[in-house]
Amino acid sequence: MKVKTKNQASNLRRRRGFTLVEMVLVLGIIALLVGSGIFYLVGVLDVGKESRVKADLNTITAALRTYETQNLFLPTTQQGLSALVDKPTSRPQPKSWRPFLKKTLLDPWGNEYQYQRPGKRDSGGFDLFSAGPDGVAGNEDDIGNWDI
Fold first, then answer.
1. pTM score of the predicted model
2. Nearest CA to 85 among 101, 70, 73?
3. Domain with 110 in it: what CATH number?
4. Cα angle for residues 118, 124, 127 (degrees, 5° grid)
5. Domain containing residue 36
6. Using an 8 Å Cβ cutoff, are 132 and 143 in contact?
7. Residue 8 placed within a domain
8. What stretches in the chain show pLDDT beneath 50?
9. Is 103 helix (H, G, I), strand (E, B) or coil?
10. pLDDT in tens, 111-133
11. Exposed e or buried b per residue across 34-55, where buried means at least 16 C-beta atoms within 10 angstroms of its C-beta
């Protein structure tokens, strides 16, 4: 039978595994890295959504300008953006109507884009905007044709 010396017993204890303090420290560092990664990712996603809103606003603005060119007027606020998808039944009715968009577009947060004619920011034209992440129009997170 072999007798373990003091050094062999000490080495055996050291090789058994990590201490509780070491495990908590490593898990804390991992949690910190994951948390900062998620924080960064959320910021990237927000920038992507804002870019999509601006692209949608450009698409809708082009459709509104084509509507205006063909009919010599823009849809009213009451007719709204649905006038680009379905022929308006209220006055003024376009004489030369066709669908200018396949469907009404929604912003990345699932809300309809807002259209006002005449606009509050562009009194000679129109305001076209997304109410932003909170879905409430008229506050600082709105993204509109004044931003592009």
1. 0.69
2. 101
3. 3.30.700.10
4. 50
5. 26-144
6. yes
7. no
8. none
9. coil
10. 999 999 888 887 778 999 998 88
11. eeeeeeeeeeeeeeebbeebbe
